[in-house]
Amino acid sequence: MLGGAGQRLAVAAGAVAALWLAVLWATMGVAPPLASQSGVASPAASEPAAPAKPTLRAVAVSGAAAPGGGSYGPFGIEQQTAPAAVNGAGDVAFFAKLMRTGADEALFLSRDGRTALVAATGGGAPGGGTITSFTERPAPSLNASGTVAFAATIEGGRANEAVLSWTRGRLAAIAQSGARAPGVTGAAFFDFGPPAVNAAGDVAFLTTLRRGRETLDAVYATGKGQLMKIAAAGDPAPGGGVFSAFAPPVINKNGVIAFGALVEGGATTGGIYLADAGALRLAVGAGDRAPGGGVFTRLSERLGLDDAGRVAFGAFLGQGGPRSGIFITTEKGVQAVALLGAPAPSGGAFASFGDSPALAPDGGLAFIASVDGGVGTTGVFAYGSEGLARIAGPGDTLADGRRITGFPLNPSVSAGPNGRVAFQALLGSGEEPVDAIVALAPASR
Question: Which domains does the chain have, with CATH numbers?
Answer without folding.
Answer: 5-441 (2.130.10.150)
